[in-house]
Amino acid sequence: MKRAELWIGLVLVAGVVALALLSFVWTPFNPTGVGSAPRLAPPGWPHVLGTDHMGIDTFSRILVGARSALYVGIIAVGIAALVGVPLGILAAWLPRWGAEGMMRAVDVAYAFPALLLAILLAGVFGASTETAMLAIGIATIPAFIRVTRAGALSVLASDYVLAARASGTPVPVIAVRHVLPNIAHLVGVQASVSFAMAILAEAALSYLGLGTPPTVPSWGRMLGDAQTYLFSHPGQAVWPGLAIAGAVLGFNLVGDGLRDFLDPKLQEVS
Amino acid sequence: MAKSEPPIGATRRARRTIGAAVAAMALALTACTGGGAPTTTPAAPDPGATATQQPAETRTLVVGATAEPATLDPTATDAAAGTQALLYNVFETLVRIDAEGHLKPLLAQAWDVSEDRLTYTFKLSPNARFSDGTPVTAEAVAANIDRIQNGTTAPKLKKAMSVVAATAVVDPTTIDITLTRPSVTWLFDMAGAAGIVMNPAGFAAANSETAGSGPLTLGRWLPGDSIVLEKNAQYWGTPARFDEVTFRYFKDPNAMNASMLSGQLDIISNLQAPETLAQFSDTSRFTVIEGSTDAEVTLSINNGATPEGVTPGTGNEALKDVRVRKAITMAIDRQALLDTVWFGKGTLIGSMSVPTDVWYEDLTGTHPYNPEEAKRLLAEAGHPQLTLRLQPAALPYASKAAQFVASQLGAVGITAQVEELQFPARWVDTVLQKADYDLSIVAHVEPRDVVTYANPAYYWRYDNPAVQEAVARADAGTVAEYEAEMRTASRLIAEDAAAVWLFALPNLVVTKTGVTGVPENANSSLAFDVTTIAKA
């Protein structure tokens, strides 16, 4: 059963990646060519998913939109992991008062919603894909710090680490050689879940006009544009909605599946 | 997510909890509706029900609107929301602007201008009364002008009234107003919020009670929901046709449309999303009126002028070349843009003037759509390839238009880098104040805003002495000269391609069948005048 979950997730994620890769080499129509086709055409041929309010082929936009979603996900999770994991290990290493102080700071940062931070950054630096990625990335750092610290604490307490410390191995070496490999599965699960959140956040920000600029296809913006046609052309909202739901579900299932797959304790129960 | 035995038990427990929660919520909801009902029923009157119960007694009109006023004093803020519901309906002015944009008498029966055009003599209607029965006198007019100039009123109105040098009460129904310089614009301003004549006895409570002389008075104000206006039984002119006029405010256009479809509204004062018009295609139930507004959706170009005393803006140097600006104009198929961006609703304009401006002339053919000619002009100017920033306000029409414009500019070799700017704060800071932009898109709603091209410090950074002289002569001249000079200014900026005027937003009004007399155009007074409306 758990395997099935993981597999469904992997298939969905692979689908999104395939759409994004395909968009680099082929789209059925120009995804930014305004007015090249009738507007708001229903699904059919040659526009398999119809056209949007600008007369742009919806399928082409979905393809290129996958790129935006993955792009934002990769960079945002990358930022969060690159900053969060070292800080998490540091928090595990610090003496008690230092770690406590740091974790309380993380709690404060955790309480700050990602979307609010993104709106703030968009206000200061202007709305763009980069600001959205930065904001989502920063907002995800606390989650990585917590997960990493929890894992690192148990690793640091193990006998082989004590032995390494006793033999004078420098701290950074222990962190890289012993701690990182043993918490990789935790970070992997967190990355997968954060990836789903990043895609959702990008969609939300673009929907609000605070993310990807209008000329770049994005699922969230497509959804935002479709809102005004909800009563007259409800089909417009379905495709980007399905794409977002599929991608988010996929990454979440992969995260869940990975956790169950990698965690020996949970495996025993099933 | 969990599928094995122990978690299933957990799931079942969770389900029971959810069930209990749903039941609790349902109870809570019922409680809310039960408790709220007595207060909300009168707040949202059902015109149909009222009409059937008391057909001969209460005649009501319910108008749906989007911008709710923050105060009942239209002179207290620059926002147009208070003006929309209250001007001409509750508050009156000496002169008014009719649907065609012409000045008409209101409180003043007639007015005269002295030979040097510095002194206006207004003859008040002797019957005019405030809603408490006291007559509208020349003293009251003078007190109102003094209040605008020296009271806590909106800066825009203070500026409009700053040309008044002195007021002299000749007799109770005659007032002389002397200006520091001849100004036709001032007379037009007197027809808007700046010219409101309030009962001086009501100045102190102007933000919560209304003390006007109009055919309606304030009944109830429910902030966040509605303003109910009641018939002024003492009205000095033609009495109102309705006993009650309700302005209901909606934050979401879809909610307003749904209310109209379910019969709760008689009128949608301005439909926000033209693509939803199809919902009102049933002509047996609804009438759709397409008029014009004063809002020019403008693709602004940083003309790069550096007037003295103004911090220079940051724009692409190429835009100083009129050939490049013409090429940008010619690269954009404005009819196709209107069809795509605003469903073909709206008016194509060739300059910063709209059909309700008295001096309007059709300038849409000045630089017609011609991408080949645009390419030629760009090559001639030495910019066959050009990269420009396009920073629209982050508003639905602007971002759609930006997408379209970027695509069409691309076809003539101009790469437009689109970056939306949050509106208003960021757009105002970056574009309007610092002029740090190449191209931008926003709608300009101010009436007679062609005069902004006479101000080289304005964000167009457009410095053309001919336009400045025309605008100065217009203000100083007679009404006929004003029209001629404003027409000249409009034509000059169009020929100079000082900006690309994409289209004027439409005034889309939806009424129930049987409602007549709704003003077709939203004119420069910004009022939604219900005095002409009738309901069968």
From TrEMBL, chain A:
<keyword id="KW-1133">Transmembrane helix</keyword>
<keyword id="KW-0813">Transport</keyword>
<feature type="domain" description="ABC transmembrane type-1">
    <location>
        <begin position="66"/>
        <end position="255"/>
    </location>
</feature>
<dbReference type="InterPro" id="IPR000515">
    <property type="entry name" value="MetI-like"/>
</dbReference>
<protein>
    <submittedName>
        <fullName>ABC transporter permease</fullName>
    </submittedName>
</protein>
<feature type="transmembrane region" description="Helical">
    <location>
        <begin position="106"/>
        <end position="127"/>
    </location>
</feature>
<dbReference type="Pfam" id="PF00528">
    <property type="entry name" value="BPD_transp_1"/>
</dbReference>
<feature type="transmembrane region" description="Helical">
    <location>
        <begin position="7"/>
        <end position="26"/>
    </location>
</feature>
<keyword id="KW-1003">Cell membrane</keyword>
<dbReference type="GO" id="GO:0055085">
    <property type="term" value="P:transmembrane transport"/>
</dbReference>
<comment type="similarity">
    <text>Belongs to the binding-protein-dependent transport system permease family.</text>
</comment>
<dbReference type="GO" id="GO:0005886">
    <property type="term" value="C:plasma membrane"/>
</dbReference>
<dbReference type="InterPro" id="IPR035906">
    <property type="entry name" value="MetI-like_sf"/>
</dbReference>
<keyword id="KW-0812">Transmembrane</keyword>
<feature type="transmembrane region" description="Helical">
    <location>
        <begin position="69"/>
        <end position="94"/>
    </location>
</feature>
<keyword id="KW-0472">Membrane</keyword>
<dbReference type="InterPro" id="IPR050366">
    <property type="entry name" value="BP-dependent_transpt_permease"/>
</dbReference>
Automatic annotation (TrEMBL), chain B:
<feature type="domain" description="Solute-binding protein family 5">
    <location>
        <begin position="103"/>
        <end position="444"/>
    </location>
</feature>
<keyword id="KW-0732">Signal</keyword>
<feature type="signal peptide">
    <location>
        <begin position="1"/>
        <end position="31"/>
    </location>
</feature>
<dbReference type="InterPro" id="IPR000914">
    <property type="entry name" value="SBP_5_dom"/>
</dbReference>
<dbReference type="GO" id="GO:1904680">
    <property type="term" value="F:peptide transmembrane transporter activity"/>
</dbReference>
<protein>
    <submittedName>
        <fullName>ABC transporter substrate-binding protein</fullName>
    </submittedName>
</protein>
<dbReference type="InterPro" id="IPR030678">
    <property type="entry name" value="Peptide/Ni-bd"/>
</dbReference>
<dbReference type="InterPro" id="IPR039424">
    <property type="entry name" value="SBP_5"/>
</dbReference>
<dbReference type="GO" id="GO:0015833">
    <property type="term" value="P:peptide transport"/>
</dbReference>
<dbReference type="GO" id="GO:0042597">
    <property type="term" value="C:periplasmic space"/>
</dbReference>
<dbReference type="GO" id="GO:0043190">
    <property type="term" value="C:ATP-binding cassette (ABC) transporter complex"/>
</dbReference>
<dbReference type="Pfam" id="PF00496">
    <property type="entry name" value="SBP_bac_5"/>
</dbReference>
